[in-house]
Amino acid sequence: MLGFLIGLAVTVAVGWLIVKKYQPHTILLLAGLLLLTVTAIIQPDTSILFKGAKTTGWAGFDIFAYVKGSLSYRAAGLGMIIMAAGGFAKYMDHIGATDAMVGACIKPLQLLKAPYLVLALGYAVGQILNIFIPSAAGLAMLLLVTFYPTLVRLGVSRAAAAAMIGTTAVLDLGPASGAANLAAKTAGLDVAIYFSHHQIPVGIATIIVITILTYVTARYFDNKDGHVVGGAEHQEAIGEQRELAKVPAVYALLPMIPLVLILIFSKLLIQGIKLDVVTAMLIGALLGLLCEAIRTRDMRAVLKGLMAFFDGMGHMFARIVSLIICAETFAAGLKAIGAVEFMLSSAQGLGFGVTAMTLVMCALVALTAIITGSGNAAFFSFGHLAPDIATKFGATAVSMLLPMQLTAGLARSMSPVAGVIIAVSDAGQCSPFEIVRRTAIPVAGGIVVMILFSVIFA
Asked: Cα-Cα-Cα-Cα dihedral of 89, 90, 94, 99, to 10°?
């Protein structure tokens, strides 16, 4: 009981500090170290070592050795996957392949003359693009300068267009997603299997529901706000659309190469050859390099351009991999001090089943994502707890990890402090709270359907 109360107090303090815009990485790391320190003092017989590592001989050093063990383990495994994916995405953006892909995907929508239908379908297209462009903020910025003016010219309000773009990355799908890779590894699954067998069935149903609700809510709020289709905003939008990078149309296929390779050379199709995510990203980047060499014939610039890949890797380590390590330390502290065990035994005592416990964990993730504005911070903080919890209730790890991982991304779009929401609200010339008012219904509907289908397909 004491461990649970200490863990709860520290968790509340962490949430409050993050809301006050203190750096999440540092807060999670210090909170985890504090919990491990308290555990070493009040429960000296409890192990605070990372995955059975050998003790340094003194508990004071063992606390810091945990962070070293997590850093070594994550940087060489999951961290390398996330960094390679980030580097590939950065290089595709550098050579204009991302622009080409976005342009190719939105052109068919521009031919339709039904404003709100185009808006709703735009979400579905954007969600598919997110598989290849894993950054929510990055994808949003691309769509804001390419698709957003088209939507406003067609007649929808700026707020409606901005809100839709703010939801295009609510589902972290595919091997390029750091959260998806963490979920797959934690569940002990190949990322291609996790994506194709678990994420896709749930994702399709969720996308359909969010698309329909996006159409309904956009029309409702525009009518409620007195927006006139083809009014003043329509005229102001003319001339705002950015010209896409002038690269060959085939460049639109380059961002798809790693995903295609990963799916082909996996247990799904060709089982004799296994291709991992990092290797696929490297192959995709080098194919992009070859295309650039053929197109520009400026080898000095082409070779220098590959530095964007390594810059992208560094950015992902600083922002995402480090967050995983800090969040894992926090989760380890909660686990070591007994807060998790107390929660599990209490849930079992109340007669909770695996479904009820999954709902509790999803609620924790959703609340954290809304408060912090970060889906990664939410899932990375609690994702490591899922396998032990699921085992206690006689369920598979993926049955709990899948809804938790998808909930984190969905709930982020209901947070007025999320970076992507702030970015689209600025473009939409309205407050983040106005955007959240419009995204709440589609996202809430998506969460409900996602959890229902996760229980069925996990």
From this structure: 40
